[in-house]
Amino acid sequence: MKFLANAVMFLVLSAGTVHANEFLAELQALAKGKIAEIAASAEVIEAVKAQNGMTAGYDQAKIDELDKAWRAETEAADQPMIDQVLDNALSSYLAELQGNSDGLFTEIFVMDAKGLNVGQSDVTSDYWQGDEAKWKETYLVGKDAVHVGDLEEDESTQQLQSQVSVPVTDPQTGENIGAVTFGVNVESL
């Protein structure tokens, strides 16, 4: 497995991008197993439901305003909006999961029914994920949907990773209420 990961890393470094994800089967199994378990946890369900109650009336103008504010804060010394999300109980739970994953998870973030961040293990570059495949191809598709992103080299860690996303489903209604994305270090599979 290490040889395969190193060969893929070489391809990424020399060609720029690998279009086929050679780890697709392993990543889908992880999505249907451990990632699905976390997406169904009480911590995730309760936090998404609570935020959906607050954001249900947001229109696109409000979402764009919040996303713009978040993006500006990523470059600022003062980050009240980012701090509010990073300091919530769900973010603490996700950071603990990432920290206990032995390097398998490089990031974890949960989105609500609008595609807005509910909690995250690390700061994301934007607050609204609703225009991206990780949200569209899970939340909008159905409770068994899985989105596996392309293999990419993380610039800061130099690790080969792929994002894996699944919907967050209300166990009482069976309806999708949000989505969760995991950055997965494929060298740790």
Any overview of this molecule?
It is built from 7 helices and 6 strands. The protein has 189 residues and is an alpha+beta fold. It has a single domain (24-188), classed as PAS domain (Beta-Lactamase, 2-Layer Sandwich). Strand 1 and strand 2 form a beta hairpin. The longest helix is centred in the first third of the chain and has 16 residues, at 24-39. The radius of gyration is 16 Å and the shape is globular.
Residue stretches low in confidence (pLDDT < 50, at least 5 long) are 1-19
Query: Approximately how much helix is present in the residues?
Result: 40-55%
The overall average pLDDT, rounded, is 90
CATH H level, superfamily name:
PAS domain
The quaternary state of the protein chains shown equals: single chain
Largest sheet: 6 strands, antiparallel
Structural class: alpha+beta
Please name the CATH architecture. 2-Layer Sandwich
What is the C-level CATH assignment? Alpha Beta
Under CATH, the topology can be stated as: Beta-Lactamase
Question: Can you write the helix and strand succession as a string?
Answer: HHHHHHEEHEEEE
* Number of self-contained structural domains: 1
Radius of gyration based on Cα positions: 16 Å
Number of helical segments? 7
Number of strands: 6
Beta content comes to 15-25%
